[in-house]
Amino acid sequence: MIRNGAPATIRQEADGSGPPGMEADTPRLSNAETGRSGRRLADQVYERLRDDIVSGALSPGTPMAELDLCERLGVSRTPVREALIKLADADLVRIYPQSGSFVAPISREAFRHAQFIREHLECALVAEAVRFIDATSLRELNDIIERQEKAATSADFYATDEEFHHAIAKISQHEDVWQVIRQTKIHFDRVRHLTLQEDAGHIPLLIEQHREILNGLAECNEASAVAAMRRHLREVFRRAEGIFARQEEHAAQIAVKRRPRRKP
After folding, report:
1. Coil, strand or helix: which one is 26?
2. Which CATH architecture fits 1-104?
3. For 224-249, how does the pLDDT look when each residue is reduced to its tens digit (9 = 90+)?
């Protein structure tokens, strides 16, 4: 049975006014991480925070105070400041002068754009994969689906879901396109993580849709494989609306609480 795999480092305040800052168990960047491959520290801080935001470990509205982040990650202010600017450019963080930085809400528009790009590219990839599919590739995809069926948490399923789609890109002989998809689906993934964390009960349906894609590939039926992929990628729309509605309701509640009270 799949359990909720959401990280528990950030939680809403009891009064509903918004989430608190990062807790003390936020993992620090290790010496190995900060020194490997000559990667810039700011890039590593960005990647850590980006992953935490996308996965939901840092929820919308979470304060991103520089000093707090420095302490939690064990780095100086310069790489944190650079990472926050980069996160703001990606619309993952909002920076308000005199108020501070906060995790940005999930953008409906960015979500729809990301889904549009992903659907068109992945449908093209699965169409190409029909031309190159063989017994070895079919076994690989089937093995991934079997691991999805055994996934213990929603996070485990998410990882194998990514593996399944990546494998199709490799089979299509256009693996580099998967990197383009990964770069453009950040806001799409924020919704995916939330839908899995809030309702892991629909995971069996997603696995069934993966099998439909696999069947289309096994039959070398391009139309069937593409139609199955399109249905699968549009499934998230059925659950996304509730997430956006709750997000907007929460934002409205905060706005009311912050509104100055008139004197009698």
Report:
1. coil
2. Orthogonal Bundle (1.10)
3. 999 999 999 999 888 887 788 777 77
Q: Considering the domain 108-242 in this protein, what is its CATH number?
A: 1.20.120.530
Q: What is the pLDDT of residues 26-53, one digit of tens each?
A: 566 654 444 544 468 999 999 999 999 9
Local structure of 68: helix, strand or coil: helix
- CA distance linking residue 198 with residue 78, whole number of Å: 36
Look up the pTM and report it.
0.78
3-state secondary structure the chain: CCECCCCCCCCCCCCCCCCCCCCCCCCCCCHHHHHHHHCCHHHHHHHHHHHHHHHCCCCCCCECCHHHHHHHHCCCHHHHHHHHHHHHHCCCEEEECCCEEEECCCCHHHHHHHHHHHHHHHHHHHHHHHHHCCHHHHHHHHHHHHHHHCCCEHHHHHHHHHHHHHHHHHHCCCHHHHHHHHHHCHHHHHHHHHHHHHCHHHHHHHHHHHHHHHHHHHCCCHHHHHHHHHHHHHCCHHHHHHHHHHHHHHHHHHHHHHCCCCCC
State residue 111's pLDDT score: 92
pLDDT of the residue at 99: 86
